[in-house]
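Appendix B, Record 12. Input sequence as logged:
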Amino acid sequence: MDEKVIDNLKSESRWLRLLFMVLFYMVAHIAGLLILLIAIVQVFHGFVKSEPNRRLLDFSASLNQYFYQIIQFVTYNVDTKPYPFSEWPGDTE
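Logged structural output:
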């Protein structure tokens, strides 16, 4: 085997990144289900109140950004780990 491949296989940081990728993939799956649940609640809320729930809109906007951050990390587009290792998206404080 090539020496570079062997060094990469021994790299602790690469294995740690893989572990975080798997964990964040599972979090993204849960977030996706939560997004679907919010969409269903918003539909019913729209029938009852004729408008979407403002709090759910705000939360779903930040949840969508969080989901995007996870996808960016898992696909190696960014190296910054999403929440809880960085700020929750949309936090202004």
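Helices lie at 3-10, 12-49, 54-74.
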